[in-house]
Amino acid sequence: MQIGVPKESHPGESRVSATPTTVKKLVGLGAEVHVQTNMGIGSDFADSEYIDAGATVTPNRSELLAKSDIILRIRKPDLDEISQMKRGCIHVSYLDPFNEGELVDALATHGTSAISMEMIPRTTISQKMDALSSQANLAGYVAVMLAANKLNHILPMMMTPAGTIKPAKVFIIGAGVAGLQAIATAKRLGASVTAFDTRPVVAEQVQSLGAKYLDIDLGETGQTKDGYAKELTPEQIAKQREGQKQAIAESDVVITTAQLFGRRAPVIITRDMVEAMKPGSVIVDMAADSGGNVEGSVADEEVVINGVTVIGQSNLPNNVCRDASIMYASNLFNLINEYWDKESQTFVLDRENDIIQGCLITHDGSIVNETIKNLQR
Questions:
Q1: Is 312:302 a contact under the CB 8 Å cutoff?
Q2: Does 118 fall in a domain?
Q3: Rg (alpha carbons) of the chain, rounded to whole number
Q4: What pLDDT digit, counting tens, does each position of 151-165 carry?
Q5: Residue 136 domain-assigned?
Q6: Which of 122, 188, 241, 322 does the annotation list as catalytic?
Q7: How far, in Å, CA of 90 to CA of 364, rounded?
Q8: Residue environment code for 96-109, b if the CB has 16+ CB neighbours within 10 A, otherwise e
Q9: Is 69 a catalytic residue?
Q10: CA pair distance 58, 361, nearest whole angstrom
Q11: What is the model's pTM?
Q12: Residue 61 sits in a domain of what CATH number?
């Protein structure tokens, strides 16, 4: 099978979906790998490294798309590129299928077998393929570093002959993969960290990292079978806001991570709560590109509200694009390797497999994912 890796066309995207290391592994499986010229340049992978790994480097993007049996990339394809792809090919990337109905329809019409990396089920077997988790891990780290860089004082306590500097107070809302990494990073930098999550079950994880868990009684909450926080009722959101008010007002840094899979992010910090913070404080809204957790945040912008800087940068893993590429490319290789038939040297779409059922959106001219199919009606 020919595996094609086109250069990412989304503005500012520096991550790549294949590294020289994963290309070498794919070639070792028996695949023929073609990468577009300068595909890896954003993450400092030279064409010569891909050639040494066994890939063919080509400047012709259209030919690469037209001849590849499997296409690997980070971002969803542009609509006008779908018709250029080999009919019946397997396309693997983020797709945002809940919000990209036209794209999903076009992929189905073209006969593309489209795998959405967001839809990989969270199971023990699929952990090695879980791109959402691998990228969220890095995003949590980057969020803390952005806040530390913008803050007008240091994070750790420092005892000097001139006096003692108190540690900065960091409040992290959401203790999923990104939140836990943010907690760990802030603690490593010496901050005093408090965290909250709507799932009380994660309190022990928060405390194991050395942070204080803010206990707010929201009544019955919980998590989905995939480990995501369940959507709160309007009454529960109101209770959460009230319970967090003091912690937010006293914090130097607030990081919000609350997102609802496939839906708009909930607003959990209102403008009056932002205005109650000390001037010079920083908020990083990690959900800014899906609606925002903070009233007044703007995707891919920094705004100042009453002296408080609100950072709404999306695609946080792109700040550490080399490591993000290594992790994402590894997720893709693990997916392919899991379903690679060594005898025929082909990638087998086992429709009976739970992981394939979860992430395969379109196949053989139809929308086959039950969840997405119901959305399309």
A1: yes
A2: yes
A3: 22
A4: 999 999 999 999 999
A5: no
A6: 122
A7: 10
A8: ebbebeebbebbbe
A9: no
A10: 29
A11: 0.93
A12: 3.40.50.720
